[in-house]
Design goal:
Layout lengths: L1 H27 L39 H6 L6 H6 L14 E9 L2 E5 L7 E8 L3 E10 L3 E10 L5 E6 L6 E8 L4 E9 L8
Antiparallel strand pairs: 1-8, 2-7, 3-6, 3-8, 4-5, 4-7
Amino acid sequence: MKRNTAAWATLLGLAIAVTGCVQLDTELAVPSATPDSVIRGPVIEVPVEESIPAPVVPEIPPYSAAGLNQRIKSLAKDSEARELQAGKHPIDDAVPGSAKVLIAEILSGESYVALPKIDGGRTLRVSLRCQEETRFDLGVYGLPDGTHIGGGNGECGPLGGTGFGFGWSPHRISGYLHFIPSGDEKVEITVIDYESAESPFT
């Protein structure tokens, strides 16, 4: 009887040992990786830096002040340039006596006009009067780099003028004006610089 009990105990221990090994193997089993279970990081696309072309600065002959007074007289009588020539004060925000006419021209079609040397910290006023109702684009650019400084677009006609005013940065010396009308009608263009009673740089 004791022999049978001992034999059964031996067999039972062996069975437990074998069963334990199977359970241990099951817990440590690692499934093989499949393509679906592989974690990949996001693909980062590095943008290609695009170079910005430098503005094209056209070759424009210097503006001549010779005959400027005569050209001013050819403008409409109620133009700001004519009023300044007559000793009037047509620009509200100008310090009295500081305004002077730099350019007075009658143009037709797309035109470039060079600006003379301008003292930094002053204000420019560009005025237009068109012979007929005309749409236009106008830009003022600084030299030597052709940086856009001011301007605008809209319509001008024979009744009254259309004007733009903007500050002239102290580090700018000269520049040019680019005028693009919708047709070939004659257009009066004047540029006046003055000291503003309300500084554009404050």
